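Here is an idea for our session: we take a single protein and study its fold together. Start from the sequence, derive the C-alpha cells from it, and show both lines together. Once you have written the record down, we can walk along the chain together:
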Amino acid sequence: MDSSEHDSSMPSSGFATGGELPPGLTEEEAEEIQLELTKVEDEIQTLRQVLTAKERHATELKRRLGISPLSEIKQNFTKSWHEIQCSNAYMRTSQTVGDLNRKVTSSNVYLTASTTLEDISRSEAYKKTQETLSQAGQVTSAAFSTMGTAIRNRLGEMSSNLSMRHSLSMPAMRNSPSFKSFEDKVENMKYKVMGRSNGEGSNSPTNNDAPL
C-alpha cells in the first residue's frame, strides 16, 4: 500500500486540514496521536453504553428488592455523612474545635466570669432584689383586683340611685301644677269631643257652661 492509500484510509485530523502543527510535532506523530484519540473516544462510548446497561439492571434489582428512590436517597445521605465524619479534614476540624473549647473554658477570664456570676446569684443583695420584685408583683396584682371590685360596686350604687330617683320623681310630677293643668286640658278636650258626637253645637251656651 502506497502512502496515498494510507493517507486516504486514515481519519482526517485537525492538523491535516490546513491547521498548523504545534512546535516540535511532526505530521506522522500528529496522525498517531489522532488515531489514539479516536480509539480512546470509541472506548469511552463503549463504556458509556455498558454503564447505562448496568444502571438499568441495578434499577431493576432495586425494584425487585423494594428499595424506593426515597430510601435510596436516605441511604446515600447516611453513607455520605459517615464518610465525612471519617475523613481526615472533619477529624482535624473536630479536634481543633475541641481544643479551642477546652482552652476557652480553662482560661482565667472564663473562670473569673463564672465565679463572679455564681457569687452574684448567692449574694444577699441578689436575693433581696428577687424578693422585692416578687412582693411588688403581688402588691400590684392585689391593687388591680381591689380597684376592679370598687369600680363594680360604684357602678351598682349608681344604677340603684337612678332607679330610686325615677320611682320617687313620678308621684311628685303628678302632683305638680303643670301636670294638673295638662290633665285638665285633656279632660276638657275629651268632653268637647264627646259632646259633638251627641249632636250638641260647639258654640251653644249649654256646651260652654257644661261642668268639667
Observations:
- The CA atoms of residues 147 and 153 lie 10 Å apart.
